[in-house]
Amino acid sequence: MSTNLAYAQPEPLQRPGQRPSHIEIVTTKAQRKARPRVLYAVVTVASMFVILAAQLLLSIVVTQGAYQIDSLQYEQKVLNRTEQSLLESLSLQSSSQNLAAQAAGFGMIPNATPYSLNVSDGSVFRLPGSADPTGCGGTCGLVGNTLLTGMPLASVEAAAAAKAAKAAAATASSKPAAAGSPAAAPEAANNAIPAPVTR
Question: Looking at the DSSP assignment, which residues form a beta bridge with residue 115?
Answer without folding.
Answer: 126
